[in-house]
């Protein structure tokens, strides 16, 4: 249906780099559990993330970023009450809502339409993953206002695995446009390049 052909094209060029390229964890959310077995994310949400590129194609136009991503906690932090996920965990991102229809979230492969509220995609199984969704501001949507200062996404992480951890709290991540001087136009092939330079 919506943008099916575009997403199929992107799948071919993105699948490998989305899973194989290393990322720095600077702004990423680190996922673990608290002492009660509730999922938690260690993440700096005080500042808005900046969209990295201006994406342009026949069927989809807007601003795109793959930061922040989400990685599993590497070792226990008992002083913080933050602990590594069990090997049976199967952690998924669940979209709670966005600030408007122009603010969209795509899975890390960009191979399906943007998520609707309550929909999920897999972040990773066990306790060794590093996954980056695509955050997208769709300038083709009528509600897009270039004078708006920020857009937001509300989300949580949930466990569909055998560990059965309690759903996390709802988190809000905010995004803002880059300054005009730094906005570069990105095409289909550029999505792979964006992942490769991480």
Detailed description of the structure:
The protein is mainly beta and 198 residues long. It has one domain (4-21, 28-141, 149-196). It is built from 2 helices and 14 strands, in the order αββββββββββββββα. The chain has a 5-stranded mixed beta sheet, with no helix packed on it. Strands 8-11-5-4-14 form a 5-stranded mixed beta sheet. α1 (4-20) packs parallel to α2. The relative contact order is 0.26.
List the helices and strands and how they pair.
Elements lengths: L3 H17 L8 E5 L5 E4 L6 E2 L2 E4 L4 E5 L4 E3 L17 E9 L4 E4 L13 E6 L4 E2 L2 E5 L12 E9 L11 E6 L8 E2 L1 H9 L2
Parallel strand pairs: 1-6, 3-13, 4-14
Antiparallel strand pairs: 1-2, 4-5, 5-11, 6-10, 7-9, 7-12, 8-11, 12-13
Question: Can you give keywords for this protein?
Answer:
mainly beta; five-stranded mixed β-sheet; disordered C terminus; 13% helix
In short:
This protein has 198 residues and is mainly β. The protein has two helices and 14 strands; from the N terminus they run H-E-E-E-E-E-E-E-E-E-E-E-E-E-E-H. The chain has one domain (4-21, 28-141, 149-196).
Number of strands: 14
Which percent band covers the strand fraction?
25-35%
Shape: elongated
Number of helices: 2
Q: Order of helices and strands, N to C? A: HEEEEEEEEEEEEEEH
Report the mean per-residue pLDDT as an integer: 83
Largest sheet: 5 strands, mixed
* Broad structural category: mainly beta
What number of domains?
Answer: 1
- Helix content, binned percent: 10-25%
Low-pLDDT sequence parts:
1-24, 181-197
Strand order of the largest sheet: 3-13-12-7-9
Q: What is the alpha-carbon Rg in Å?
A: 17 Å
Oligomer: single chain
Determine the N-to-C terminus distance.
32 Å
